[in-house]
Specification:
By secondary structure, this protein is of the alpha/beta class. 56% of the residues lie in helices and 21% in strands. Strands 2-1-3-4-5 form a five-stranded parallel beta sheet, with helices on both faces. Helix 2 runs parallel beside helix 3, helix 3 packs parallel to helix 4 and helix 5 runs antiparallel to helix 10. It is rod-shaped, with a radius of gyration of 40 Å.
Amino acid sequence: MTENTKIPVLLVDDRAENLTALEGILENMGLDIFKATSGNDALRLSLKHDFAIVLMDVRMPDMDGYETAELMRANPKTSRLPIIFVTAAMNDTEHQFKGYEAGAFDYLLKPIEPTILRSKIRLFCDLYQQRLTIEMNEQQLEALVAERTAELNATLNNLRESEGRFRDLLASVTSYLYTVVMEDGKPVSTVHGPGCLSVTGFSAKEYTDDPELWYRMIHPDDRQAVVDAAQQVLTSRTTDTFEHRLQHKDGSIRWVQTTLVPRIGPEGELLSYDGIITDITERKLAEEKLLRFNEELEQRVRDRTRELERRNHDLEEMNKAFVGRELRMVALKEKIAALEGKQA
């Protein structure tokens, strides 16, 4: 490890000589060692720094290790902070359970075996680095989602601006007005404005010569809806706007927006109604393009999310395998140390 990547660890003991001894054992491991001589000091430091592990003596005045660990567990910022208790009093089951209930991950008996201590510290430091990697991956995912969202918003703004320009253009070039004259509630004649040629490809004269042309040019799937909308205007005598497709004279399918405005006589009779038709084909194409873009963007985000989740899963599986191996090694070393102690 380099100077810039030292891993922070916290040593807690009320006796300075014990802290010095622990620091000596952990020397040259690439650690950034913090020391506290009381439970209060440990709590204060744990709130300021993100430690990989806390090595804490159980027997301390004022606030012992158990109480300090319980207070760390009660704070959301330090609730997952790994703690190893150092004591000579945990060689029985009762003290061990008390230590684990207080929040300890592990414990070491005095006198401390340097090899075992360094092995356990190294294990928790590796876990700390893996956690940082997972958190970085999560941040990258969030940044990716934010980036894609910004791209989508920019595209939406561009499409809105384009739609505004098309609307202005079409309003002046490809909109036209027609009037249907009514007598006794029935249409008797229709007059089409000159703009019908640019929207439908048919001239006003062609509509006059062929009274059924207006109906035939409506897309077959939309004819009944158009008839129903016109009948609604005749019945309610209120303005109505709806969208439908029609077949241009050149054979292409166009989207139009139709607004029907009734003209009522002095005695409440329906004299006629005006229809304003606007070509909205470009707007519909833009909406379809936006929909496809949105679906593609969402799929890309889902694919990226699955990839990061897979990587995190692989990392977690490697972590589990590594932890299991290290714990078995620590247990084996402890047994070897115990056997050597008996032989001595």
